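User: I'm curious whether this sequence folds into something compact or stays loose and floppy. Could you predict its structure so I can see for myself?
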Amino acid sequence: MSLNLYARYIGWVYMKSFFIVFFALELFYVGIDLLTNLKDLPNSANLQLLYFGLTSLSAISYVMPISLVFALIISHINMVRSNELVSFYALGVSKNNLILPPFFIALFITILYVGLNCTPFAYAYDYQKNVAKNTSFSKSTTDSFLKFEGKFIYIKELSSLQKNASDIRIFDINGTKLVSTTFADSAKFKDNHWMLKDVNQTVLPKDLRLGEQGLDIRKFSEIDALNGFKPKSIESANAAEGARFSIPDTLDFILTFKNEGIELNSIKSTFYSLAAAPFFAPFLLLILYYHLPVTGRFFNLAFASFIFIVITLVTWGILFVLTKFSQTSVILPEIGIVLPVILLFGYGIYLLKTHR
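Assistant: Here's the prediction. I'll summarize afterward.
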């Protein structure tokens, strides 16, 4: 049998099972959400359709990983029941060659999902909640007080979408000594820095003694300041607990505040959960494949399916709990999120090598 022929067949069987499971779980999730929030839905039909679409997108983060694993269990059990799996082995197809098409398909879908987390897709849940509350997608952030490059910065109102800010106050501190204050009525973020407008700047004298030089008060129509202090990083720092982020925004936040002495475990956990955690699915798929029954003669296939589905859900649940522990700094995110994925990867590769 041609390797391309069986690979296409195995890939098609797996993809068909994946789409059936994926859409079934999607509809189940959306249906439960609609029933739960029925009283909060807007009256407009257009907004209701938008809410349905955004709910479907936000469900992908929960549904996609377990659908990848469930699809393998279903397709494998069906092939065992119809004796197709034994037939492939009789034709000389190795155990490793049978799993590679589903594994690479699952890996590709996971990479695609991680790529989507680099786009506004990552904010589907927030948009969904905004539709339910009938609020704007581009709401402003108010009363931000942050530290950046040794400066304490207060921003009365910020619009990250329009990259505008109003009533900005910058306090330049050297250790415990106030060096200068800069007050601006408004600002615009452009070319990776803020353009402050209508600026009043006060520079304190270095030597505070009677008879020495006093305050140096300056006025500017426009000056540059806060290079690299991105609006999205400011908004992320003021986001409520449970808010969603995209991968680029988490990286910007980490790079912006890495030297400011603030706790970064929560945002690191968010980054790892978006970029690393989804890969548990293809690696778990690889592991379960080598423990699934080859023939139904000595196993109760229905019971075996149930056991492996439970194992999948338990594994997913443990990883979910570890992610929550990492986000609340109970454990380090590298241990709670990255390490389990690495262990699954290592065990999967070990099984792949031992079944050559």
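Summary: The longest strand covers residues 177-190. The mean pLDDT is 83.
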